[in-house]
Amino acid sequence: MNDYHERLAKLLLEKNEMLSYHQARTWVELMWEDFETTAAKAGRDYLGSEMTDRIVRQWIENYGDRLHDFVAENPKYKDFLIQDKNTMN
């Protein structure tokens, strides 16, 4: 799973230079978990990491360049995405 998250975080960083690596990785993990949780709650069969990777990749391609604006409109995610001042990117 870490390989998927790592590749997706790098893709997101290519799409959005406003994010740090930590923020991109957090976004990927949040989107991954959201897709799998939503599918499970809907009673869908688990389709595997490859399907989740495909969906999150599609979200990044479609919305990745604007994800940094999401926090301004949705403050409940702010704590997940605040840049840690003690880390570099």
Automatic annotation (TrEMBL):
Protein name: YfhJ family protein
Superkingdom of source: Bacteria
Pfam families per the UniProt record, alphabetical: WVELL
UniProt source species: Neobacillus driksii
